User: What shape does this take?
Amino acid sequence: MIDWLPDNIWFSVGLKVFFALVMVGAVMTMAGYSVLAERKVSAWMQGRVGPNRTVLPFIEYIPFFGPLLKKLGIFQPLADGLKFLFKEEIVPGHVNKFYYYLAPLIALVPALTTMTVLPFGQLYWSDGSVSTLALADLEVGILFVFAVSSLGVYGIALAGWSSNNKYSFLGGIRSSAQMISYELAMGLSLLPVFLWVSVPGAQESGLSISGIANSQEGAAWLFMVQPISALIFLIALFAETNRLPFDMPESETDLVGGFHTEYGSFKFGIFFVAEYAHIVIGSALFVLLFLGGWHFLPFMQDPWPSNWVGSLLGVGWFLGKTFFLIFFFIWIRWTLPRFRYDQVMQLGWTKLLPLALANLIVYVLIVTLIDQTASLPL
Amino acid sequence: MAKTVVLERKPLSLSERTYLPQIVTGLKTTFTNMFKPKVTLQYPEEKPFIPKNYRGVPTLVKDPNGREKCVSCQLCEFVCPPKAIRITPGSVPDDQEDREHVEKAPQEFEINMLRCIYCGYCQEVCPEEAIFLQEQYSSSGYTREEMINNKQKLYELGGTLPDHHYKWDKKKEAELDGNAH
Amino acid sequence: MNAVDLLFWIFAVLTVGGGICMVFSKNPVTAAMFMIISLVGVAALFVLLDSFFLAVLQVLVYAGAVMVLFLFIIMLLDVGPDVAKQKITNWRFGILGILLSSLLVVVLISLGFPSDFSGANNPSWPVLSDAISSGSESLLFSTKVSAFGYGLMTKYMLPIQIAGFMLLISMVGVIILSKKVARGEDV
Assistant: This one.
């Protein structure tokens, strides 16, 4: 009935579960290390050195590498995670217990679900065929990412509501309002991209992320063709991941801690990891859509060979771009101050949305022009 | 009277209204900051520079001859705003030759570091220049009892400071010259 | 029963159970949560029908946007559990609703249920996956995104225009209503 469920179902399901666990492990590790990167980069930008004390026993005594790893704080995420795990768990008496416990899970699950459709490289088979490396390379991949990531707001909204605390509540309300406002601009900013890629004569058509990434091989990256789309998408991405300058839900200067005011220990840790998982996935998405994915440089063919070495290099190149974008997220955070709530709303509704619409119309006209000239008999 | 000048605020230029060039400038600033020298002091290994007139933990000092200077006049106990100092006066035994003119010395001298506010009044009021707030700034302990510095501890912390007067030597000389008080 | 049937029953129970729990839950937030579960269940059923596009749209539009607005309003107005205590005053509408919904159920069962109870599908209904696997290039029986686009822009052009026009009307209405209130407050 369904072709993606083969006969030996337990083997197939087991393999998928294994891959999913590997992927979750990879993204969680990256999330943990982006916390470290955040602490390090913020320290460097402020003239400090950042965490440089944590070290595992014995490793410290390895010459050169031990002190170097210690200085870079490589083991800090481990210590942070253990700290969250072993802290005393305090549940305030006034919370709605069920939703209070449910909210962190709802926040984390969509963050980890979106990664299933994110392609991260290409596999070159010996017979010359090429397949995309992804847990599920859906035709509607980009819509899937939008759909599932929009569920993440429930975690924040429920956390704010169930805490029975005015600050948390305001955080939850702000988060849902902001999510709705920027989702529109985000979706609209991507329409011209897909129009452009599916332009008549193009090889790809559809909403698949790997298709978009592959369309940039040996051609211009899409942020050059679609600068305004890329800009709007990036801004909306900041808003959707609740990063500064858009971190309305937890603006600690006016809302104490925002939606997670009443959360501590591991439940707060889950929120924390979810936020960074969102950043990792958002960065990867931007790289795939606008920065050429795993392809080398604009207007250049991939220099690596078409075998497993090439696959690995491609994945590594993709990860490198993603790390740069994560760094960019952190860089922006420690540069810009937070917007006021009404400014966020104003920017979303009166600036980004009309701009995205205008951008869409312009590109529709251009694509129509190309379409018409292409269909003319020469 | 100063004349009030109302400055007209210039309308924002296009690049200012789009806000993006400003962001780029900010990004440049933070990026160059990443490579500037760090100001962090690796504390337990590197100690900060303590200036001469630093007011750290109050200590008792001895003069260069190793005699305790405090005569337990209890002025510091009296002046101490948080009442951190407690002195039990005692007498100086007659056989101590280099201090024969001093009648008293503290039998016990306690400063409660949980109460001390490092105001320095004790140093200021001391007529014998026996108590000083020195460069010691970090005091810690696991119990409250540990945080009460007794006489022995205070002398340990204080050490010896140079003395300009050698009061007792002068007194001894004066007595030998025959014009004792 | 194979795995797909098992999945179908799980998601069907999730969908229907979510709907029932939504109607009977006292707390509006709980009701909204059950509605989300129900909507996600429907999306999962779409996935079982190979229709990823519809499933994703279902989650994106209903679970992701409409229900966020619902939750937003529930939280903002602070609708408490006592709202559910209001008694149903007009029984006639209740009876009418029960009649209509049971009629719907009857029609759906008569259309979709295997006619001879042998487990085979009603032959008058084409099986989508068969149509796809038979390799027909027709966009009619395809779950490709372009099939939806093609259909909406050709055969269903008029309904789409009408739907868009109705949305425009409601938007204009909202703008007018909100403007009026603002003017009243100014005076």
User: Anything to note?
Assistant: Residues 20-33 of chain B form the longest helix (14 residues). The CA atoms of residues 173 and 179 of chain B lie 9 Å apart. The mean pLDDT of chain B is 84. The helical segments of chain B are 14-18, 20-33, 75-79, 121-125, 151-158, 167-177.
